[in-house]
Amino acid sequence: MLLLRSTLFQVLFYLVTFVEMILFSPVMLLPRKWGWPIVPFWSRSLLWLMHVVAGIKVEIRGRENLPEGGYIAAMKHQSAWETVALIPLFASPTFILKRELRWIPIFGWYTAKYRQIPINRGKRSEALAAMMEAAKEAIAEKRQIMIFPEGTRRPAGAEPKYKYGIAHLYRDLKCPVVPIAHNAGLYWPRSSWKVYPGTVIVEILPPIEPGLAPDVFYEQLVDTVETASNKLIEEARQAPVPSPVLREVDASKTTEPVGNSS
């Protein structure tokens, strides 16, 4: 039954996305702010699909910690879930994403239309400069910059690998950074066809205000997000039917190399 539900969800996820991109394509002719409501609509339709087909519910904590205006939202990256599901929380978000996503037919047109920030990972110094320029413009327009500081999805409970670029953004943009933790990787694991029922818990933590030294900020961000995410993983153990992914989390902890311990 799980495999059947997961397959149905995966197929419908991409089918609904494709159909809505085609249906809403006339917004390409409209000013960006007029057409933007279709994006949170797409997100909510997929959240409904996740709930009805895959049995994934959502609990959001800490909405009061979202500031007004422009800021950086630094999110834990465990799953495809957070790339879609958190969009309605923000008034005018822009993701920092791989340049290659711009090349996807139709989808790439939407990323360009809504001025998402592409980054060329192959040219690091040039990419950082271009990203910074686009990010400054977004903050000036009071938009919210969505970034996954680890750069790529990491399994739930895995050792964190945050990129230092988030500290450069914090230093140069001089705006608040909102840490966001969650446990979505327990229910929609990376590189997995199976999607498990349960409640994804998202915790929006108090913003880190500008003014800290980059190293101090970096350590505080990593500690804040990781501590909260690990607590949410432990909280998920108390669910009536805990996610089977928790067994993988436990196994990874018991097989860590001895050299990693202190």
In short:
The protein is α/β, with parallel strands linked by helices and about 260 residues long.
Structure description:
Strand 3, helix 5 and strand 4 form a beta-alpha-beta unit. This protein has a single domain, classed as Glycerol-3-phosphate (1)-acyltransferase. Helix 1 (2-23) runs antiparallel to helix 3 (38-54) and helix 6 packs parallel to helix 7. It has 262 residues and is an alpha/beta fold. It is globular, with a radius of gyration of 19 Å. It contains 9 helices and 7 strands; from the N terminus they run αααββαβαβαβαββαα. The chain has helices at 2-23, 32-35, 38-54, 81-85, 107-113, 124-140, 165-173, 214-236, 245-254, and strands at residues 56-61, 71-75, 93-98, 117-119, 144-147, 177-182, 198-204.
Sheet having the most strands: 7 strands, mixed
- CATH architecture label: 3-Layer(aba) Sandwich
Give the mean pLDDT. Answer: 90
* Large-scale geometry: globular
* Secondary-structure class: alpha/beta
Task: Determine and state the CATH class.
Answer: Alpha Beta
User: Count the strands?
Assistant: 7
Rg for CA atoms: 19 Å
Give the CATH topology.
Glycerol-3-phosphate (1)-acyltransferase
| CATH homologous superfamily descriptor | Glycerol-3-phosphate (1)-acyltransferase
Strand order of the largest sheet: 1-7-6-2-5-3-4
The overall number of domains is 1
